Structures are given as structure tokens and as C-alpha cells.
Amino acid sequence: MLRAHGEIDAYTLGRWRRLFSAARTEAGRSGHRVIDVDDITFMSCRAIIELAEDAQRYRRSAAAIHLIRRIR
Question: In this structure, which topology does domain 2-68 adopt according to CATH?
């Protein structure tokens, strides 16, 4: 499970990509990647696009990305 927190913007996008890459490697074993977005306070358009593109790649390989967040 990838737990992200804070802001994902132009300044932190490089780190976000590295975390995604590591999570992708880990997910390769199970076919699923779980991302806990509960503590993300801001997500830029570019970060959302990266997530959507990644989800498409997963779908083509019969895998899945799951976003989770607590209901408050």
C-alpha cells in the first residue's frame, strides 16, 4: 500500500513519480495497487493525469489501482 500525504504539485511531482514506480513494482506481484489518499491535501492536475495514465496501463494488463480514503 502506498500512503501519500501533503501536497502533490509541481514541486513534489518527481517524488510522486518515484513512489508510483516503486508501488508499480510491488503491485506487479499481486496485480493490485492500493493508494491511501486520506492525507493528501492537494493534488495537481498533472498528478491526477499521471494517476489516470497509470490506471490505463494497469487495466491493459488486467491489474487494478484502488484509491482508499476514510469517510469522515
Answer: Transcription Regulator spoIIAA (3.30.750)
